[in-house]
Target: Transcriptional regulator
Amino acid sequence: MADPWLALEFGADPAERIAQVGAAHEAFLTASATPAQVRDVVRRSWERSALLDPEVTATVDLTDDALESYRAGHPLARVLPLFRDLLGGIAQDGAHLMAVCDAYGRLLWVEGHPGVLRHAERMNFVPGARWDEGHVGTNAPGTALAVDHSVQIFATEHFSRPVQRWTCAAAPIHDPATGRLLGAVDITGGDHLANAQSLALVRATARAAEAFLAQPLDPTVVAVSALGRDEAELRVGGRRLRLGRRHSELLVLLLDHPEGRTGEQLGLDLYGDERLHPVTLRAELSRLRRALGPELLDSRPYRLRATVRADFRTVTELLERGDAAGALDAYAGPLLPGSDAPGVARLRRRVDGQLRAAVLAAADPGLLAAWTATPAGADDLTAWQALARALPPGSPRRPLALDRLRQLSAEYDLPRATFLQRPGN
Model:
């Protein structure tokens, strides 16, 4: 069976294929007809792109210091040397480009021969530009993100006419610990890229990136993952430790108070006013010290001696820098969602509330859609209202947003006529 993600079967004539698909593209634009010559993955992508102008070019979201800051904090920054090792030869051969994008299709790095880069600049294939399907239609990195699969897009299969002189292959990359989509790696060039080798290369590169990300961080770095999981994972000294519920809660509370906490303060944060058990707390802290190592946990007050990276702190730090997209990228779900410890519950509400406020303020359809897909945003009536307003009337996602709004309005017993009103109206 032919690979449906590959643009050309072995032995196919590229020029003939370009003409066939080009004619199908024009038929689709003029009469919404999709002849059988078009692959299913392309046809479905054209349908998702139907409201766009076929002359559209990418918009640039980030430039200069904002771009540098965003790239530096992105998880794929760790893998950039590997991308250059595996794809550097292609990127410098004078005919191809290597590109890496985030989960929103925003290009982080675009590298290659200066002459090819200059040609790519004419269609805004540059760092900081948005290449998701919602902005430029069918293209390899954007479509790979949309369908969460490696894919090759050949010449006239691109929805945007200015991109149809290019061929590209891209593969999505996931966080190996959580499965969260991080972005995609892409190679872009001429018609000669429409072969099985280029698709296999980006697939292998994406898998190598995920394997690299699965490796422990520098053994001198202590890292904690507590978002979207009931039990935190600690990486220290080259080890990965899964902590129990109470130890997870204690560690998160200590991370939230780097200045230190007394036993009484920790007890109140952990148990509440009516269930303060000093002996039990001391025993839990003693076991936590054994798990962490005596060099990490101090007492009088209780505090962490080492600098510890924590995923929930990454989210709040990005929000403090005004980077709502980066914060949502780093957000893997609510903080220790199964915990009812008062201090953890307060911190969970604070992180979710700050992120929600930033997403609503941005009013970006992509960010709003990502927020409403999280457990914290799934029942957020205000966010669904904002998403429905932000989506253009003909968007294929708008009916889904409106349907969810109707469901939530019925649950909240709101009048039908008011469920699209702006907050405060």
In short: Residues 407 and 413 are 10 Å apart (CA to CA).
